[in-house]
Predict the 3D structure of the following.
Amino acid sequence: MTDLADEILVRRALDGDTVSFAELCKRYYPALVATAHAIAADEHLAEDAAQEAIAEACRRLRTLKKPHRFGSWLGAICRNVAKDMLTTRTRSRRAVEGPAVPGGRDNGDEKAALDRAVRALPDPLRQIVYLRYYNAMTYEQMSSVLGLSRQAINGRLRRARGKIAGTMQANGFGDNDR
Amino acid sequence: MKRKPSDNQVEEMLARHLHREPAQFDFEKWAQTFPEEARQAKAGFAPAASNRRIQLTEVWRRIMTSRYTRYTGIAAALLVAFSFLFPSGNGIVPASIAWADVQKAIEEKQQARVTGVRNCFFGDEETPSHKLTVEKLFSLSYGYADRTYTEDGTLIIQFTAHLPSGTLTVMFPTVKKYYRMKMPAQSLERVQSMDREDFFKWLWASGDYRKIGPKKVQGIEAVGFEVDDLVDRFLGSDGLGVNSKIVNFFFSMRSMSVRMWVDPERRLPIQVEGEGEVNPCLVTGYRKMKLTEIDDQWDFDVDLAESLFDPEIPEDYEQLGVPGVVKASAALYSIGIASIPIVLIGVRRSSRKR
């Protein structure tokens, strides 16, 4: 079961085979959580978004035209769900707490500086960073979720790391000049 | 000034600080949170009862995936309905005894069943991509029904206009969908305010027709009449007065010429032929298409039950909702739907006057 192609599992799921559908969900759930975390910056919200994305996929599975692209289709649903959830949460927080206050320097905390640098990345680069480093995903797994070629993924990852390095340097992190 | 961290250093930091153990998916737990979706998964993703009323746009997209239904429907009724539009002469068309006799003969018949073949061609194809059988039922009392079948006899679309109740119904049996409505007030008013003479003036005052033949058709030396600009007559400034942009979004006819062949002895049509070009639009999948149709089986001695024009909807059919843009305009119904009641009511009123 675990080795079966997405296309076969989707077709079985459409015939009412819940084991196949559960297998598809298991296969992509970590990637969904990583993607949603990249967008929402909140682990709990990310899990909620991933589960809601699976529910949404349930409602729309009959409309999936290319079953072999189930992963990237589900990934796209998850991105939209996470963005919607983030928007809703931001609005409700603003209503309660008022506008967010911009953060200051990182006072030597490498993790906080890295987090800030990752947050500063454009959405597509941040998502690819999360997919790669969150669960140590292979390029092949990333490709099936993003619908991108290995070369494109590699290029984006390099660009993302370059931007992170630049932001960290600007925030006072890096090697001392000799 | 610090030096920029190297690519390897960034990679190492990311791996160290960002890494999490992969989240595990628990289907049973998820099913407790989303019971309706879990039920759908167990049922092979059949739509939930609460979602049975679905948007026309969604269903239209589903219908578009069918090999056949996309090329039928809106224009389905045009050709043979056209045969009922020929005037009996009131000065606009030069007096023609043949036409007057044809019109009179048709009106006397009250009911008719017509069948033919519709072909759809794409690009420069010489053989049709789709060959469909069409069946059209006319009743001066009950209305109009138009059915389209595949070559193997599967009914794929049925349009009915029931005149006594003003009910219009479109059914898509292969996908078990239907749409039913009362005629929009605007169209109904227009139909009610128009008698056959008005309709005839509207249709014929803006263009010419040609007499053609005689020619041997089905073994009969038939006389023919031809009109080239049917589309302009329906959608032009003197046409039905509908929003042509919306009509063209769905089904954009570029041109349509129609010929009717009449048996001079019986004064009745024996064949109607039509040829048209369709611009890229929703119905054609945004490709150019040519359309030909020959309706060559005319049976005037038929007994048609009223139920044929007001069919019962099977319980397992889903009703289509109408998106706002379409609801806002009666235009959607103008070519295939509104025009037919106009034709029939016009003819019926004329009959009553006598």
Remarks:
- The mean pLDDT of chain B is 67.
